[in-house]
Amino acid sequence: MRGASFRRARTVRRAGLAVACGALVVLAVVLVRGGGDADAVSMWVSVISAVLAVCTFVLDLVRGADAEEAHPADPPTAGRRRAADALAEAVRTQWTAEARRLRLPGPATLDVPWSPVGPPLADPAVATGPVPAPRERDGRPDGLVDAFRAAPSGQLVVLGEPGAGKSVVAVRFVLGVLGERREGEPVPVLFPLAGWDPSASSLRNWLADRLAADYGSLAAPTGDGRTLARELLDAGLVLPVLDGFDEIPPAAHPAALRSLADELDSGLLTCRTADWADAVRRGGVLPGARAVRLRALDLAAATAYLTRTTGRAAAWAPVLDAPPAQLARALRSPLAVTLARTVYEDPARDPAELADPGRFPTAERIEEHLLDAFVPTAFAGPGTAWHPRAAHRWLGRLARDATDSTGGLAWWELATAMPRPLRVLGPALCAMLATAALLVPIAKFGGGVVADWDTPGSAVLNFAGILTGLCAGLALLLPPTPQTPQGRRWLARTALRTTAAAAVVGAGLGLLVPPLVSSRLGAVLTPRPAWYLNGCCFGLILSMMSAVAGLSHRPGPLGLPWTGSPGGPRTVRALGALVVFAGLAVYGYTGEQVTAATCVVAGLVLVLAGLGRTDRPAGHYVAPATALRGFARGLLRGLAACTLIGVCAGAVVGVIGGSFAAVRVHAAPDWKPGKEIGGWKLARTADGERAVRSTAARDVLLVERAALDKPFAVARGARISRDEETGAYRGRVTIRRSPDAGWVTDWPGTPTAWRGRPVDAHNLVLALPEPVRLWLVRRDAPAVVLDAVGPLVAFGMIVGLIGGCASGVYRALNTPSDTIRAVGPRSTLRTDRTATLVRSAVAALLAGAVCLLLIAVTGRGSTLGTMHTELWVPVGTSTLALSAWGRTATARVWLAWTGRAPWRLMTFLTDAHRRGVLRQSGARYEFRHQRLQRRLAATAPTAAGRGRCPPETDRQGGLRTEGEGSPVRAH
Question: Which residues of the chain have pLDDT under 70?
Fold first, then answer.
């Protein structure tokens, strides 16, 4: 019955979609044949298509009661158990894939023996109890799982020397517990303790934050204000496996032990033996905890492993028959044994060199040699695309500069490797370039939708101002992370910072180009400083809208909310096809290129997003109704916040600029009518208004701009963009003030259609000599200020409308990617790129619909000019650079240009993972062992590269062999 009901509902939706498309076509035809204005037709078709698109999306959202989506309300306990089961699946997927790649378990597995230890490393009260003896296969996880089960408190500490295999044991313990787990039981989750600061956060808070960050679905809030991650912890449904207590700074060990004693109900902890002994001596034993120690390998086990797994038993036999003492000590470490196996699998290397006491006097020196040789060996041999020494250097710099607090190598965190100024400048520069790549062609060929610059130099100044505003706005306004609370206090702080930055721009305008006539935002002579300062305002506004929309300095990877939904991709494809059809209809019936192109591009992005295979979002896919509620909340929040901030900032700029203008106007002499200054005679009209008349012939042009409904007058040679010269006149000119139309002149020249009619003379006033201009525009100081404030406040309202649309879209589609169950880092990067493009396209589409409505309401001749469209266009492009994908692209360019990484970075990391240098944890890479990471970081070159790959590699990282000029590529 449910299947039939679903099919009927789907049929109804498709029929409704077809009817809506037909109605759209009929409406366009009726409007065109009925003599409707082409701009009105374009506006109505675009607006209705946007409404239909939203309605189609809403229908799919509202139907969210499919059998796959909805389920009856569950009691809290059942909901938590279901979340725990989903978490168990994610953890199993994460570590099973990595264990399979590491061949755990398998013939090449090196089993590590262990034995229980007592006081002072364990709690004397429980250390005397029965602990299962190690089984025949000591390294198998079931022995440690049994030892953990036997601990009355459910707390087990695993100790061992550096390189003893503690992290591998932790992974195998997680898989062992998961193998025995039943539904509703606690889920073992591995937490690297390197990222925990006990002085800044309690253990339970840190665990909840890590769960929410790593498993995005657990970040969802519950009814009592806690996150789902915290609920699972409090309900005992998470079994923490805490790896690397020794990674916590020694000074914090006592505080960490106290937090463990107070907050760790059950779990497994790994630590180096010496560090644990020191921590227990200073902070006391962990109450109720039992401890086991991983024993060193004996020579027989190491010999059997190396001769059995390397295929070079003959080469190893003379070395291992009677090894020197330092080699025997080194081979007691599982890490050294596995490194030796990898390094000396290469037939070109002879393990006999390890017995040379001159080169390797100590076991530590042998281990360092194996660590240093591991990466070059892994990248040596046929089929490699990277020179071994280059690979070693690149990995060393990444280990030193690009790893996070837990030692992970996440592509979305690569930007942290850049210097702090570049973390702001890089995305700002990319945003400016993306905006310029779209604005310049539209300004040149868009038919006046966006005003063109008067000269190329003005365009450069304008984009330099946009870059400056973006840098200031991104540095001051964006929250540090997506998890940063963005409540009322944050919004108030954002408003104050934006207004303060706007005040600086207003002061610059007042000092350099005060609005003596009024603040006019379109078809106006613009001095060079004004181009730069206007760009600063635009950059600041774009940053503010991005901040209100929730973009941050360190964005995480995004998923697509419909991934996993049975009908979601089909609905998105249908929605995209509808938008494409609407764009073609707009172009076919009205010829509006920019509007049509926006619809077509946005529709194609949606179609391609619905066709592509992407990683799943965190947890279950986002329920449609949830996405709709997110859009509504984001829209209302964005409208309120952006309007308030935009109006306040516009008013501040207007007041400051208007105040400077009022001072200059009233500081000038107020001559009586009849005085002649610079070829202009001062006069009064019959109604008492001020006017000026030229005493000599002037060359004046009547010009048109496609975005305006009426022509305007300019002096011949004026530096202002225009589309067409309608008429010309040479003679005496009178400029007067009209109560309705501002500054006008009664046009005396051609064409005859405009002869004797008042035309806009705003730009003639700006071209007057300064004493004449100051006398002509003289009026009360409040009037001067109000004339400057009015257009800027109206512009602030436009900022609110467009920013509200952007905020609604960004928050509705703000779906974190499941970085744990991800197929891999590259697939997560592709998914984030797709999600970013979808958000930008939909935001631009809705913002464009708002702009068309504004044009219909305000008309083409308003003082706002083309500001709405000039603000609409960058809404989509600028935010591309602020996404995780955009910031990573900036970081990759910088890393490659400075020689810190290859140009094909993701391909290189994938190869490093395939060769066993890195391991994969969901969408992150991690170094195979922390000692390997530390050694690489310690030996990495400290001097930055000079923008070139090393001599032995080409630009793409290809290997160059001696005496050859062509790179060797992977086959």
Answer: 1-76, 98, 101-109, 127-142, 216, 223-225, 381-383, 405-406, 446-449, 519-523, 564-567, 590-591, 612-626, 706-707, 723, 741, 820-821, 855-869, 943-971
Query: From the CB of residue 273, how many other CB atoms can be counted at a distance below 10 Å?
Result: 19
E-strand stretches of 397-476:
408-410
The encoded tokens of residue 524 equal 């106006």
Specify whether the CB–CB gap between 922 and 213 falls below 8 A. Answer: no
In this structure, is the dihedral angle defined by the CA atoms of residues 395, 400, 402 and 408, taken in order, positive or negative? positive
**Alpha carbons 656 and 668: distance in angstroms, whole number:** 19
End-to-end CA distance of the chain: 55
| Token duo for residue 641 | 């916040």
918 exposed, middle or buried (CB, 10 Å; 0-12, 13-18, 19+)?
Answer: buried
Distance CA 892, CA 903 (A): 7
* φ, ψ dihedrals at 268, nearest 5°: -120, 140
Tokens of 38: 């082409």
> Who's near 866: CB < 8 A, 6+ residues apart?
448, 449, 450, 451, 522, 707
**Any long-range contacts for 104-110 (C-beta under 8 Å, 24+ apart)?**
104/168, 104/171, 104/172, 105/140, 105/172, 107/308, 107/309, 108/309, 109/139, 110/139, 110/165, 110/297, 110/301, 110/305, 110/334, 110/337, 110/338
Tokens encoding 212: 């929410």
Contact 255, 107 (CB under 8 A): no
Rounded to a whole number of angstroms, the CA Rg of the chain reads 35
Q: Quote the CA–CA distance of 619 and 817 in Å, as a whole number.
A: 9
DSSP for 24-92, written as a single string: HHHHHHHHHHTT--HHHHHHHHHHHHHHHHHHHHHHHHHT---TTT--PPPPHHHHHHHHHHHHHHHHH
CA angle 689, 691, 697 (to 5 degrees): 160
Helix runs in 680-723, H state only: none
pLDDT of residue 103: 60
Q: How many residues does the chain have?
A: 971
Kindly provide the residue ranges of all beta strands, DSSP E only, lying in 282-340, ordered along the sequence: 290-294
